[in-house]
Design brief:
Number of strands: 10
Number of domains: 1
Distance between the termini: 64 Å
Strand order of the largest sheet: 6-7-8-10-9
Largest sheet: 5 strands, mixed, barrel
Helix content: under 10%
Amino acid sequence: MSDTKAPEENQPIVLDRMISLTYSDLLPEHTVRFVEQLLDGKIIGRKCPECGQVYAPSKGHCPVDVILLLPEHEVEVSDQGTVTGFTVITPVRYYGQTKTEPFIYASVLLDGANTPLGGQEITGISIDDVRIGLRVKAVWKPVAERTGEGQSTRGWGSVEGCIETFEWTKEADAPFEQFQEHVA
């Protein structure tokens, strides 16, 4: 007699095996264009013709006016901006961990854009001195090392394949009124 019995109707079947899945997505046109420009050392967004908001990087539409943003709406934004929020990350030691010292991840509102880039590392300043309003600039990877790595169809475009970090410009802080709507 066998120990195996048929699963009851509507009962889950559990597989006790390790598998791996690899996904390949075709990037939308606005993300492909964003990556092409990043590789050339430029950050682009798209400006809504209705409300004037600049989305950098673009999602391909304006969520306020619910309209498509097309290539003709493309604008270049600065690689300098303002920290609008930040978190101090203290790495937990585990096998393969490459960072061992605390570091900063911040949201950076680029000059000329209306949407901040989240998760940007901030360097060139003590962790104790990082604050909202801090002016920062992109530190670009050498041209030969730039890639489209980190891009997907599941959210905003990423700059990590082309920008190493953002560092303090040593400029005076931006006035709070310029970025207050982006502070969480």
